[in-house]
Amino acid sequence: MPTIFSKIIAKEIPATIVYQDELVTAFKDINPSAPVHILIVPNKEIASTNDVQPEDEHIMGHLFTVAKQVAKEQGVAESGYRLIINNGSDSGQEVFHLHMHLIGGRKLGPLVHKAD
Q1: CATH for 4-101, among 2.60.40.10, 3.30.428.10, 3.40.50.12780, 3.40.50.300?
Q2: pTM for the full model?
Q3: How far is CA 80 from the centre of its chain?
Q4: Are 49 and 87 in contact (CB under 8 A)?
Q5: What's the CA gap between 38 and 44, in Å, rounded?
Q6: Can 101 be counted among the known catalytic residues?
Q7: From the candidates 37, 97, 99, 101, which is the catalytic residue?
Q8: In Å, what is the CA distance from 111 to each residue of 97, 103, 116?
Q9: Predicted local confidence at residue 49, as pLDDT
Q10: Cα pseudo-dihedral 48, 34, 18, 71, rounded to 10
């Protein structure tokens, strides 16, 4: 069953796409956590990092090179940005189509809080 991200990639539903090629698509998050919040997703439907196969290595590496390019284009490459890939429900993954969050444009603070 196609995910919402697959529909964005196919341009079946609207999104502000900032980058797209044959392997990945990057678009603005509709509920941003910071001034810059871009989702970078493989065009191939991969549910989570647990589902990455050896033949997907090129796609996974490409996510990072696209992140570098998008960060520069969005003006956060020099000041800093965070890349997050959630895996599974405990991590907060809501859409089960692997995706990388590129977040920046302000000081982000600690990534996780220490356990009690």
Answers
A1: 3.30.428.10
A2: 0.92
A3: 16
A4: yes
A5: 18
A6: no
A7: 99
A8: 22, 12, 16
A9: 93
A10: -90
